[in-house]
Amino acid sequence: MAGISKNIMSKSPWVVHVNCNSCNGCDIEFLACLTPIYDAERLGIINVGTPKQADILVVTGSANYKNIDVLKNIYNQMPEPKVVVAVGACACTGGVFHSCYNVIGGIDEILPVDVYVPGCCPKPESIIDGLIEASRILEEKRIKIKNPDKGVAI
Amino acid sequence: MITLINLKILIKLLLILILPPVIGCILSGIDRKVTAHLQGRVGPPLLQPLYDVIKLFNKENIVVNKYQNVYVITYFIFVVLSLFMLLMKMDFLMIIFVYTIANTSLIVGGMSTGSPYSRIGSVRETISMLAYEPILLFYIIGMYMLTGSFKISKLAYTNKPLLYYLPLIFIAMLFIMTIKFKKSPFDFSTSHHAHQELVKGMFTEYSGPALAIIEVAHWYEYVFLLGLIFLFWYTSPIIGLILALITFFLEIVIDNICARLSWEWMLKFTWTIIIGLSIANILFIYLYNVKIL
Ligand code: SF4
């Protein structure tokens, strides 16, 4: 049992996907990860519908004044431990929409982003890579929550 | 001597408690693996459902109200109880009643949250109960007319399997299994991985340990439902097991080749064709006064 529960978070990271006014390029690439060619489910990655069951929040597109409340709401509904992954140039920095009158910038202006996946749009391979990295951070966070005094560096 | 008997009962009880979730876990692992292969994917490891459950136990439990957890635990207890009664060969009618309580508590749990997704999911689950409950009753009535008893233990004295006399009800039960396993085309109250319906239907508001308990209860339920199929060939356990396994694989295939239908369609279908099949079967037994005991 102890052997199984070691690294358990990285064995089944469930993902909820939020589109913050992205151009849909990143969303298509993210969904491509679930198709038979890339098959993210072999790594235990599942795209769930509700944030209450998710471990990883995948955000595409930049933050703007219209969607910060929605984004914060979704983030707050996720149970601990949780990780945020910013997919695409827009989510990382604001990308081509940076400095628009309604755009605040990257997602990290609002949420604590753990993994950045750059590219416009990033390849499915690099998105899966980012999700694996995120699941590793997830495991570290779980250990940190379990023994708060140990203080694992993240 | 008495302690020896007690020990035997204790071991039996432990087996009943421990073995079904192991079987159920492997079955749902096989389910995901076969589904993946049918879709041309590699699929998750066989023990993925176990990983999911352990992970969920490690998560925070966010609840909308504190009654939600009560309903989850009620569901779990009554599913285990109904499986226990089935394995102890008790009264079939009673088993279905106990099993109904389990499902009802799940529906009430979904209703107790304010979320519209969860509520619509629960309402749809109520409708699917309306669809499958009569068939289960016809199954019991058929068994009662043949053996003159509701006791499952009586089936051991028969020399011909139930399937000989209840073939139409068996076909009806195959459709009921699709509803109960929450597979396409009838997975509209809540759904399994990779199909999304109403966000997550009835289970939208469950997270962490509560969802894990529901998942473990599902493993028990898998074994319980396949046990109902097993009863069709009780006289020879090997053939009964093969029958149950074939049913399970059939459900997986049906899940992958069908699109989801609306609940109206399901209600019309079950209340005409499926109930018609069951009544025809019961009428045949009644008119020819068939008895196997
Ligand atoms: S990073 Fe590129 S592809 Fe992705 S949302 Fe922004 S503009 Fe579209």
From TrEMBL, chain A:
Name its co-factor(s): [4Fe-4S] cluster
GO MF terms here are: 4 iron, 4 sulfur cluster binding; metal ion binding
Specify whether Metal-binding is a keyword of the entry.
Answer: yes
Coiled-coil annotation reads none
Q: Where is the signal peptide?
A: none
The protein's superkingdom reads Bacteria
Domain named NADH:ubiquinone oxidoreductase-like 20kDa subunit is located at 23-133
Keywords, sorted A to Z:
4Fe-4S, Iron, Iron-sulfur, Metal-binding, Ubiquinone
Which spans are transmembrane here? none
Sorted alphabetically, which Pfam families does this protein's record hold?
Oxidored_q6
Q: Which family does it belong to?
A: Belongs to the complex I 20 kDa subunit family.
User: What is the name of the protein in this document?
Assistant: NADH ubiquinone oxidoreductase
UniProtKB/TrEMBL annotation, chain B:
The UniProt entry, under Pfam families, shows: NADHdh
Q: Name the keywords, alphabetized.
A: Membrane, Transmembrane, Transmembrane helix
Which ranges does the record mark as transmembrane?
9-30, 70-87, 92-111, 131-150, 162-181, 210-234, 241-263, 269-288
- State where it is primarily located: membrane
Lineage, top-rank taxon, reads Bacteria
Q: Which GO terms describe its cellular component?
A: plasma membrane
Report the subcellular localization.
Membrane
Provide the membrane topology annotation. Multi-pass membrane protein
The reply to whether Transmembrane helix figures as a keyword in the UniProt entry is yes
Q: Which InterPro entries does this entry report, sorted A to Z?
A: ComplexI_Subunit1, NADH_UbQ_OxRdtase_su1/FPO
- Write down what this protein is called: Ech hydrogenase subunit B
The organism's taxonomy opens as: Bacteria, Bacillati, Bacillota, Clostridia, Eubacteriales
